[in-house]
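User: Show me a protein chain along with its predicted structure.
Assistant: Here is one chain, sequence first, then structure tokens.
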Amino acid sequence: MQGRMNERRQAIVDKAFLTFDRDFSGFIEVQDIKKSFNASFHPKVQQGLMTEEQVFLEFLQNFGDVNRDGRISRQEWNDYYSAVSASIENDDHFIELMKACWKL
């Protein structure tokens, strides 16, 4: 699956973003994300190749916070999850991963 996410995937990505963007500013603070980020189901954590902290730091690096202001824009969030989505063929699997990761 390449390009834009389908409606089901975009809906769960939006739900996760809005969990943190409580003031609807279009940005979320990194410290707020860390409180809810659950990397215990990440394959590399389960295989013992990475710690949950390492997965979280890698996750943040992938957003490319260019100005390093400690915030993630909605566009950065969508771009990141669009790339993740492209590597997961099954919609239900993608949705379950999002639910597990963000405790939705």
